[in-house]
Amino acid sequence: MASFDEDIVREYFELNGFFARQLRKHSVHSRKKATEETVDLLVHNPSAPSEAPEPNFQLFSSDMVAIRQAIVVVHSWQKTRVTPAILKSPARLLEFLKKGVLSQTDVLFEVEEGLLEDVEAYRKVLVLPGLPTAEPQRSECLELFKAQGVDGVIAFSTILEDLLRHVEVNHSYHKSELLQLVRVLKVYDMVQAPQMRLF
Predict the structure, then answer these.
(1) Does the residue 189 lie in any domain?
(2) Rounded CA gap, 52 and 55, in Å?
(3) When you count CB atoms within 10 A of the terminal residue's CB, does the N or C end of the chain come out lower?
(4) What is the span of the domain harbouring residue 103?
(5) Based on the structure, what is the number of domains in the chain?
C-alpha cells in the first residue's frame, strides 16, 4: 500500500485516541493477480473501557471508543481497479469486493507466529475503498465479511469525513503534512463541512 493510504488511516486512528504502529509490511501473493502490497497497523486505545458495548460491524467514528485493540488491514483503493463508477454502483461495488477482497481475507490477517501474544484478543478491522449503500447489497456484503472472520469494516469515506471534522483552521499541524493540507484547504474554503464538497 502506498504510504499515502497508510498516513490517512494512521492519522484517523491517532486522532481518535489510538496508539498506532506498523505491524508488518510485505507482499501478498495471489494465484490470479499480481503481487499486492499491504500494510497492517496494530492500534491500541488506552482509554477504551474494559466493559465497552460491542461496536457495530460497519464502523463509524462513534464506534472507535468501544475498540481497545485491533489489527487493521488497509485494502488500498489506489492500486485496485476501483473507479468512481464502481463506488457509485452498489451492485458493481459488491461484485468488486467479492472478487478482489473477500478471497484474500484469510491471507491479509495472517500474523507471524510469536509476533503477538494473544492474536484472538485483537479485533480484525478491514479498511475498504467503499461499501455498498443500497440494500440488499449492503447487508449481503457485511454478512460475507462476517462469515470470513472479519470483526469490522470501515470505508475510506468515513475516515476522510472524520479527518475533515477534526482539523481546525486555527491550529497548526506542523508534524503532519496530511492534516496541514486539510487545514489549508479549509482555511481557503476549498472544503466545506459537513457536505465536504471539494472546490
Answers:
(1) no
(2) 8
(3) C
(4) 3-166
(5) 1
First to last CA, the chain: 28
Q: How do 36-44 and 19-28 pair as beta strands? A: antiparallel
56-81 CB burial, b ≥16 within 10 A, e <16? eebbebebbbbbbbbbbbbbbbeebe
Provide the grid cell at 113.
Answer: 507466529
In whole angstroms, how far apart are CA 28 and each of 4, 41, 56, 131, 151?
Answer: 19, 15, 28, 22, 21
The C-alpha cell of 83 is what? 473507479
DSSP string across 123-183 = EEEEEES----STTHHHHHHHHHHHTT--EEEEHHHHHHHHHHH--TTS--TT-HHHHHHH
User: What is the total residue count of the chain?
Assistant: 199
pLDDT at 135: 87
Residue 183 lies in a domain: no
pLDDT band at 76 (very low <50, low <70, confident <90, very high): low
Q: What's the pTM value of the predicted model, to 2 decimals?
A: 0.82
Residue reference for cell 479485533: 123
Of 77, 67, 100, 53, residue with least CA distance to 157: 77
